Sequence to fold (164 residues):
Amino acid sequence: MANPLTQVTDALWDMLEGNSEFATLVATGNRLKYDDRDPEKDATMYADFPWVRIRETAAQAHIYHTSNMSSFTKRYFIQVATGEQSLTSTHDVEFAVIRAYADWVTYLTDLVWTGDGEKFVKESSLLTAEQMLDNEEVNRGIRGWSTIWACSVFFAFKTTAIQP
Fold:
């Protein structure tokens, strides 16, 4: 079984792809996953939109959060680019992401790490979103709306289980 960080990233994708609305709106080839391949395309065409990627952005560790538990919170960005100036296109994908995240308990809370055999995701939240019409990095040179959702996942482990 994969380490907890990989399990969560995979589960976030499973959560999005498990939503039929998201799966219909975002073609499989436009879901940029940072797994064992290079997902970034050198050139972008209109057929490459909308696209979505999940990026890890920050983490905060608390070793010995309590007398026997350590924890950390990891932040992710769910980035959506539509390649269109129509707000409807970005609203459609944005709402599909919101609806998919409403099911986070199903996808994240049953994850188990082999280090201690315990479920480790205790909480997750979809936080703030930033929307822009001309985000060069996200839109890759094509004028269109983009949304960057911040989300967090709270991990907790027995401290003795994570010690080397």
Summary: The chain has a mean pLDDT of 88. DSSP finds six helices and seven strands in the chain.
